[in-house]
Amino acid sequence: MVSWNAFMRKFAHVLVFGFLAVVIWRALYPRRWAMVGAWVFTVIYACFDEWHQSFQPGRTPLVSDVVIDALGATLALWIVRMSMRKVRLSYGQSVRQIGNIFGERMMLV
User: Fold this and answer.
1) Which tens digit of pLDDT belongs to each residue from 11-33?
2) Among residues 74, 65, 87, which one has the least CA distance to residue 22?
3) How open is the CA angle 23-44-30, to the nearest 5 degrees?
4) What is d(CA 97, CA 23) in angstroms, rounded to the nearest whole number?
5) Taking CA atoms, which of 28, 41, 62, 85 is between 20 and 30 Å from 22?
6) Which candidate, 9, 86, 47, places its Cα nearest to that of 78?
7) Any residues with CB less than 8 A from the CB of 24 and at least 6 apart, and which?
8) CA–CA dist 68, 13 (Å, integer)
């Protein structure tokens, strides 16, 4: 049975590393590889974080923490991607509606 404390610590890992991935993605955003770069940077940072824990007394580095951190980054970047897609689709629909009002056919790039 997992304790409430352990669950909250793992959930904090998901949130913090997800936030880190979004911040890195935002810094790289105009580039085509921004999402992949943000994810890779976040996972490498998680690896170094666990390596750093190996030097701290009473702390143990766990591969499962790196996996949880990567999951947090993946989930956060997926949410960003889906929200961008939704905005892009709704923008495209509104542009089409405006084009139909003026009797023009507008194409989106």
Assistant:
1) 999 999 999 999 999 999 888 89
2) 74
3) 35
4) 34
5) 62
6) 86
7) 37, 38, 41, 42
8) 7
Instruction: Indicate the length of the chain as a whole number.
Output: 109
Q: Which two tokens stand for residue 81?
A: 């991607």
Would you state the structure tokens that stand for residue 93, as one six-digit string? 């629909």
Give residue for tokens 């936030």.
19
Candidates 79, 76, 102; CA nearest to 19 is 76
pTM of the model: 0.77
Q: At what angle do helices 63-101 and 34-53 cross, to 10 degrees?
A: 160
Nearest to 27 by CA among 41, 13, 17, 14: 41
Convert the pLDDT of each residue in 55-92 to its tens digit: 999 999 999 999 999 999 999 999 999 988 877 777 66
